Amino acid sequence: xxxxxxxxxxxxxxxxxxxxxxxxxxxxxxxxxxxxxxxxxxxxxxxxxxxxxxxxxxxxxxxxxxxxxxxxxxxxxxxxxxxxxxxxxxxxxxxxxxxxxxxxxxxxxxxxxxxxxxxxxxxxxxxxxxxxxxxxxxxxxxxxxxxxxxxxxxxxxxxxxxxxxxxxxxxxxxxxxxxxxxxxxxxxxxxxxxxxxxxxxxxxxxxxxxxxxxxxxxxxxxxxxxxxxxxxxxxxxxxxxxxxxxxxxxxxxxxxxxxxxxxxxx
Length: 266
Ligand SMILES: Nc1ncnc2c1ncn2[C@@H]1O[C@H](COP(=O)(O)OP(=O)(O)O)[C@@H](O)[C@H]1O
Ligand SMILES: [Mg+2]
Prior knowledge:
The chain is of the alpha+beta class. The protein has 2 domains: about 10-90, Phosphorylase Kinase, domain 1; about 95-265, Orthogonal Bundle (Transferase(Phosphotransferase), domain 1), CATH 1.10.510.10. Helix content is about 35%, strand content about 15%. It has 8 helices and 12 strands. The chain has helices at about 60-65, 95-100, 105-125, 165-175, 190-205, 220-230, 235-245, 255-265, and strands at about 20-25, 30, 40-45, 75-80, 85-90, 95, 130, 140, 145-150, 155, 165, 190. The longest helix has 20 residues, at about 105-125. Magnesium ion (MG) binds near residues 133, 137, 138 and 176.
């Protein structure tokens, strides 16, 4: 089977504007634009792996993403709602999922991933946007920094109105890169859920262990706190512990609040 198999649809997008380079996920590829700029082209799936229709609406990703710009957020290039296609600027690096898998980073490395992603999330929160899928596969590490990608599950939220996390959204991100990933305990998703996800991202970098679930560590348990104590200095341990509190109101209310504390660490 050729690498391009499954990407026939790419030829039809914008009269062949994009040339296939490499498969990144079953529905996502690296491609070259006519001017040879490298882009990532994603076609939203009509159905999940089990045949159920997904609840993602590519129009909302296009509408949202086209209005957003931040140095640590993948740059929006183009959207084709009829073809369910979103194009972003390629971030030349590797996902945090890949880079740190069974190969844990130091505290300094964790901060080099966490701080830029928290900046992107803080920007999104200022714009009243909830990402809902801050996970290691959706963070691209390059050089000494990182960029957040994939606004497929992001939504605009009204003040104080939280949202349910659609289960299909989880299925989609698992399909892109099989990756067991815990969710915050709450049913109603809010900025505080992104805060929780940011802390899990840092823990993943520090441990190289995906699926930080009951199988490995319980964030509220004694063993977890003991482990954290050995991995990071007390300042960062305190920030992560607050971000992982089971009750949303005990966490930082937004990524911006968490970021402030991260930036003031000694
Ligand atoms: N702009 C980009 N630059 C580099 N890699 C990207 C970019 N966008 C996506 N990717 C990679 O492709 C994978 C799948 O794309 P993503 O937008 O997350 O699709 P899905 O909505 O199916 O999860 C991501 O997990 C990421 O590793
Ligand atoms: Mg993704």
